[in-house]
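Practice record 12: protein with inosine 5'-triphosphate.
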Amino acid sequence: MTEIIIATGNAGKVKEFREMFAGLDIAVSSLADHWNPVPDIAETGSTFYDNAKIKADWVYGNTSGVWALADDSGLEVDALGGAPGVISARYSGNGATASRNNEKLLHELRDVPEGRRTARFKCVLVLRTGADTYLTAEGTCEGRIIDKIAGDRGFGYDPLFIPDGFDKTFAQIDSEDKNRISHRGVALKKLYNLIVSA
Ligand code: ITT
């Protein structure tokens, strides 16, 4: 059975990856299953790709070459020139939490009318499978930011994001629906196709 370590300390991502890998002949684990405390891998890159590669390389380099899958993702809001983007996890500064990030986002968008609150989640996946072998895939999910949080599922900015074609936030819809249309779900499907055709 293929073994993959997901190079993330984000429990929300781990849950989604476990759901999406369910039923495949792949043993999935994450940083918390191998390291205590969970390593805080410095994301010094300026793009989703660079940061995903840094995380995949860390796991690959700190194991006996186990397949390492990293996700770097974030929210791009048009009215904010694409912010928070690569700093989505740290948007509200030191000690950032999802609720503080959401509060900051609402504050920044306080004067932006409904029709101009378009946004998208992006995800870049990097899978390192060998010394010089990497597979990469990207996914995007378009939507808009509402003006107060709604729902308690998911993680991060989910309570503020309504994907196109829905009238509920990512924090209100079933995880099955989120995984089918999300940036992460789209990227993982592409990556899976690359793995089976490699
Ligand atoms: P790891 O680096 O350990 O994977 P992280 O949360 O720091 O965890 P990122 O650097 O990729 O991961 O930051 C992604 C942030 O973007 C995440 O913390 C959320 O704030 C936001 N985000 C990404 N995908 C999301 C999703 O599906 N729903 C809500 N917010 C999401």
